[in-house]
Amino acid sequence: MGTCASRSHRHPGKRGWRAMRRGVFQPNKTRDITGLRFNNLTAVRFDHRDERVKGGQHYWLFRCDCGNEVVLRKNSVTSNNTTCCADCSRKRKALVNTKHGGIGTRLYKEWAGIIQRCTNPNDTSWERYGAKGIAVCEDWKHFESFKEWALSHGYADDLTIDRIDVSKGYSPDNCRWVSVREQANNKKGTLWIEYGGERMQLSYWADRLGLPYHTLYDRLRRYGWSVERAFTEPVRRVL
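The structure assignment produced for this chain is given below.
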């Protein structure tokens, strides 16, 4: 008769196998990317697994095109969040900054904001711009062209870009530099009033007449007064 196998030779079970395989790269658990190229990085070999993160994070050794070898998180490389080593990344940023002469400046941030709200569905302003068909002209998709136009059309750090026709996109023939207040007056819903042969936004009439804006607005829109009466009748003072 056969005899039972000794305890020292019995199957290790799931926990045993897990312990035996701990820290070893398992092709059946994650995709083997050895030799694959991602932008400027080529995967050399699996390095380690970080067990401190829930589910574990796989780290690989990558070789950059410049020759540097670096250990990076696999997901960061395969998702294109990391495209080269740290040295190359710093050189790229320095080159772009020199070429543009603007990264970090207010003008560059203004341009980047335009690009984001018109092209990035994840931007907080996308629904009011890109989703409504507001686009950026081809030339302005490059900062150099935008910068050249801005500096030759009165740009200053206390001004903001304004679309003359708010139903159209960003292009040289539809944009100008204005104060924040002027831009607000150009938004949809701005109330334009013609009086005495002049046509201006209600906010400007309020300043000229020395009357509160909301008083004029209520007289015209809420109470239905004529422009003549709204502009000429004194405001009653409450004692």
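Interim note for the steering committee: Confidence is low (pLDDT under 50) at residues 1-12, 15-25. The chain has three domains: 12-88, 106-184, 192-232.
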